[in-house]
Amino acid sequence: MAAVGRLVSLAFGSPREGIAAWVRSAGVENVRGVFEGGEQPTACLLRIPMGQYFGGQSVPMVGIAGVAIDPAWRGQGLAQFMMGECVRELHREGVGLSALYASTQSLYRKSGYEQAGHKFWARIRLGEIDVRERGLEMRPLETSGDGGRADDEAVRAVYAAWAKETAGALDRGVYIWRRIHEHRGIRFEGWGVIGAGGGLEGYVIWGQKMLGAFEFDVHVTDLAFTTARAGRRLLAFLAGLSTTADHGVVAGGPWSPLLALLPRQTFDLEGSELWMLRITHVERALAARGYPMGVEAAVTIDVADETVPEQAGLWTLRVREGVGTVTRGGGAAEVICADVRGLAGMYTGLMSPQRAALAGLVGGSPTALARAAAVFAGPTPVMMDGF
Questions:
Q1: DSSP secondary-structure letter at 380?
Q2: Does 119 have pLDDT greater than 70?
Q3: What is the rounded CA–CA span in Å between residue 39 and residue 61?
């Protein structure tokens, strides 16, 4: 573990003393290392088991973080070898998806990952929030990253309802919930919106980030609501923080229900980042997600996958009443050819099949592409969390 700490520290400039605690919080069993003829690892990565929502259903997903290579071994293909082994391991385990934030996209594309969704930061001018909703009570919440506090169950139920309507949102595990409540030594506090019946209708978890002398930002690590009135009450709450902070920073996508409740565009979108996805098990990934209601269609996809050749070839997806069934082989009248990277972009909805074709990742007749577009239609894929 000391060697893992050294590798991660050299790769990301993180203090070594904090890395061991970070790895322990994620679970030492989730660390993978490559040993090149010695007793110490020359490369490592961290797996983060969780899920990701598509079509209202949680699909098993493993996030990848902490990819680090010994400086003496960089540029020799070790990272690509390690990522290939990681992808094949996930396939053997039957995990449908893998996602990551890439420092070097070309490396991960060689392993079958592709741009698949957005993460933006909205910087809201708190003093200009012209929302005065005060009809619902707000109170402090008792929550923790481990799920053992009084309000954890209610908070996670509100989050699940919010996330199911957001393509790409994480079905969080303990690792992500801990980061929301405490990250890099900063403890974040939760406040909840209480509905007329006493139940939780929304919440915000936030803390102050010092920028300079008497200058703060309100940093929101999590926010969700199930009714528009709860969303307006959260905006009014944030407006009340303008006495000590100028801006509130909230993660999201290019469109957000919270921002849509603002009467005016009193915010700026900044710090945009594209996360990447890999289909690690075609059959399970296609079968586990939800699909648009009212669409009944069959799509046959000829998948190309050099890293996991056993999942290459023809797959037929039949969609009816929001559910997909997957079989090996042909079945639809026409076939779409898709590199596994193109399949990832279509799967999340970031790329329409037609757009993926322009990028050279998908091929097929206009009719076949249009049918696939209807099957994979959905909201813009967004991830609110980092890992």
A1: P
A2: yes
A3: 31
Question: Average pLDDT, stretch 328-338?
Answer: 93
Average pLDDT over residues 304-328: 98
Percent of the chain beyond pLDDT 90? 84
Indicate the pTM of the whole model: 0.94
Task: Using the structure block, give the residue that is written with the tokens 């392993």.
Answer: 111
Residue ranges per structural domain of the chain: 2-116, 130-265, 291-375
Tell me how long the chain is: 387
Per-residue buried b or exposed e for 155-194, using 16+ beta carbons within 10 Å of the residue's own CB? bbebbeebbbebbbbbbbbbbbbbbbbeeeeeebebebbb
106 Cβ contact list (under 8 Å, min separation 6): none
Instruction: Please answer whether residues 283 and 60 qualify as being in contact, where contact means their C-beta atoms are separated by less than 8 angstroms.
Output: no
Token pair for 319: 């969609």
The fold for domain 130-265 equals Aminopeptidase (3.40.630)
Tell me the mean pLDDT in the region 154-172: 97
Say which CATH topology domain 291-375 has: Nonspecific Lipid-transfer Protein; Chain A (3.30.1050)
Instruction: Give me the residue label for tokens 């978890």.
Output: 205
Alpha helices in 313-352 (DSSP H): 340-348
Q: What is the pLDDT of residue 46?
A: 96
Whether 291-375 and 2-116 are alike in CATH topology: the answer is no
Banded pLDDT at 342 (limits 50, 70, 90): very high
pLDDT of residue 24: 82
Instruction: Say yes or no to pLDDT of 240 above 70.
Output: yes
| β-strand pairing of 170-171 with 43-54 | antiparallel
Arch. (CATH architecture) of 2-116 = 3-Layer(aba) Sandwich (3.40)
- Which amino acid is it at 99? A
User: Residue 258 burial by CB count (10 A; 0-12/13-18/19+): exposed, middle or buried?
Assistant: buried
At residue 213, does pLDDT exceed 70? Answer: no
